Amino acid sequence: MSAAGDSTITVIGAGIFGVCTALELLDRGHSVTLIEQFEDGDSRTTSNGITRNIRFSHGDDLWYTRSARAAKTLWTNLEARLATELMDECGVAWFSHDEEGWAGASQKTLEAEGIPVERLDPSEGTKLYPSFGYDDLAFIVLEPDAGVLSFSTPLQSGTRPEFRPIRMWKTQTPFTAAAAWTVFPSRSALI
Ligand SMILES: Cc1cc2nc3c(=O)[nH]c(=O)nc-3n(C[C@H](O)[C@H](O)[C@H](O)COP(=O)(O)OP(=O)(O)OC[C@H]3O[C@@H](n4cnc5c(N)ncnc54)[C@H](O)[C@@H]3O)c2cc1C
pTM for the full model? Predict the structure, then answer.
């Protein structure tokens, strides 16, 4: 890739990775084209799923824990940039049957990293879920600022002012590398 500000870069795919890559390239001064085969909000785009969550528990795996936490900062930055709520910090609760298990290890890692985490008595689970049966549980690990992610809003890319500098191209069919060589100049980069 050449120095900032002097190249045209084409990103194929307007999922979360493609959109964030396009925005980053824009910030670095490049001219960006973003190609997508589907219309905004299409459920075949993985990022549009309604079940996506962000949480920091990864047992004793420090790399994943820190990576997830760093991702939260990036989501917060994206929310600010788009002036849109993308995260619902409703909390994530892990139900554990024994002290030595994954949830207990996660709690220790989160505490060591200074990431908000609480240990709840199983009976407190009824405050989270009124019909909850907790007889066989040892404890609950609650991550209060984890929660649900929604990416469908940023995909309204054609209409949002933040995306206007990006050239959006809806292809309706999968864009192929072979087509790229006929459409784009030789100095373009494809991602
Ligand atoms: C069931 C499920 C649950 C998940 N849960 C979570 C979760 O809880 N938390 C979490 O962080 N992650 C979760 N993930 C993973 C997360 O959703 C994905 O890692 C993320 O959305 C991938 O983003 P992406 O931009 O790489 O891909 P996508 O969102 O799939 O975007 C790729 C885009 O590229 C387009 N495209 C591809 N090829 C072409 C082409 N040739 N021409 C034109 N367009 C093209 C596609 O149409 C698509 O829109 C989950 C995934 C699944 C499937």
Answer: 0.86
